[in-house]
Specification:
31% strand, alpha+beta, elongated, 35% helix, 9 helices
């Protein structure tokens, strides 16, 4: 369809129970990731859940920082890596983008893809330092294992729901997530009540609302919410040709000379966005000169 709704993440507060609320719609971002990495349906859905989780986690951060959400598992999917910035830029890849297998119904839906063991880890950039924490996968389900992460690692009463709802032939019809977290003095009983309701309400809202935006979803699910801000979300990678050249520089003169002698040029494909960066012979010769290599006499 020509008219597609924009992705965004909305942050707000439920003032009386003192709960923080984050609502994200990441449909177009998830589709862009699928397109770039040519993902099969199961890989695309799991990556979509990871992207949504990364965006929700990143929205908890202050300032201009990045959050990484990583899943590793012993199933055929093998895992994903999501890098989300507080400005709404997110990039991601799946370790196996070709996965399309029969999934079970019910709580064991993702077992066939994720297997029986693995871990979820979150790396937060807090300005001067990085804070990393990991938890073992228990439910083999992105949203519920994120809930385990919050319970064991952050120890802040929280609830995460993430849903991917198909529309017609589009498997990634709507992709969205909700995160509720108790602030200091927050009412945990209200949070627990919401924890029971939100998963059903989220599926219902996504299935029955024609144009789902994060704003619309926040109003449907949390009519009492005081909105703090809204940030557009998009798939965006920080890679560029200069960064590739800088990385090549770390190989050293001998290795670069070897590329010149054997191939004459090289191409590097970014793992995050699948963009191919061509580094031609003039680039390599210029790099050798910068690194102080003796100029070969022809």
């Amino acid at each position: 369809p020509m008219h597609e709704t924009k992705d965004s993440v909305v942050r707000g507060i439920l003032e009386l129970p003192n709960l923080r609320v984050v609502v994200a719609v990441t449909t177009m971002t998830a589709r862009e990731a699928r397109h770039r990495h040519r993902m099969a349906p199961v890989s695309a859905s799991l990556a979509a859940q990871g992207i949504t989780g990364g965006v929700l986690l990143s929205a908890l951060q202050k300032g201009d920082t990045r959050t990484n959400l990583q899943l590793e598992c012993d199933g055929p999917f093998r895992g994903f890596f999501v890098d989300a910035a507080t400005n709404g830029d997110v990039r991601a890849y799946a370790k196996n983008s070709t996965l399309d297998i029969e999934l079970a119904e019910g709580p064991y839906k993702w077992r066939a893809a994720l297997g029986n063991s693995g871990f979820l880890s979150v790396l937060r950039d807090i300005g001067e330092e990085y804070y990393r924490s990991s938890v073992a996968l228990i439910d083999m389900n992105v949203a519920s294992d994120l809930n385990h992460y919050f319970a064991t690692s952050d120890q802040v009463a929280s609830h995460v729901s993430i849903e991917v709802v198909p529309r017609g032939d589009e498997k990634l019809g709507v992709v969205a997530g909700v995160l509720i977290q108790a602030l200091p003095e927050g009412n945990v009983e209200t949070l627990n009540a919401l924890r029971q309701q939100i998963p059903q309400q989220l599926v219902s809202a996504l299935s029955n609302t024609p144009e789902v935006t994060a704003e619309v979803l926040a109003e449907l699910l949390f009519p009492q919410m005081t909105k703090l801000n809204s940030v557009p979300v998009r798939f965006h990678c920080t890679c560029n040709k200069q960064r590739v050249i800088d990385t090549l520089a770390t190989l050293g003169v001998t290795e670069i000379q070897h590329i010149v002698d054997t191939m004459g040029s090289t191409a590097v494909t970014c793992q995050f966005c699948a963009e191919k960066h061509e580094v031609a012979l003039p680039d390599l010769l210029e790099l050798l000169e910068k690194l102080g290599a003796p100029i070969a006499q022809s």
